[in-house]
Amino acid sequence: MTKTSAVIEEASIHKIFDLFKNKPINLKFNETDAILVTAKTDDNKKITRTFYFCLKPDGTFDENTAAMDGSRARRHQLVSFLKNNGITDNIKGYNLKESIGEWKGMTIEAIISEKDGSIYIP
What we know:
With 122 residues, the chain is an alpha+beta fold. It has one domain. 19% of the residues lie in helices and 33% in strands. The chain has three helices and five strands; from the N terminus they run E-H-E-E-H-H-E-E. A five-stranded antiparallel sheet has the order 3-2-1-4-5.
């Protein structure tokens, strides 16, 4: 596995039920939305990552959740992605709904293996 850079080609917010007919078992009641991020690496490989969370009406989200299981870890992955790639340092006041359109063209970190790749989350 090698670390490389990638450029975001597309980023969008979706409701869970727009993506799945039935909510996947591992997603909890407080995970109602998803961000899909598609990026292209320097060697033209496309990689996609999905982040699950709950979008508040004002366009922000809470980093912490009452659940003490995988949903907390999934939200922390989104926070790590936002901070590591310099998208924002202020998670509490960051409006995902308004700002996601600005992600297109941003350079992020990716990890590439022989078969596929993944967006890097520290």
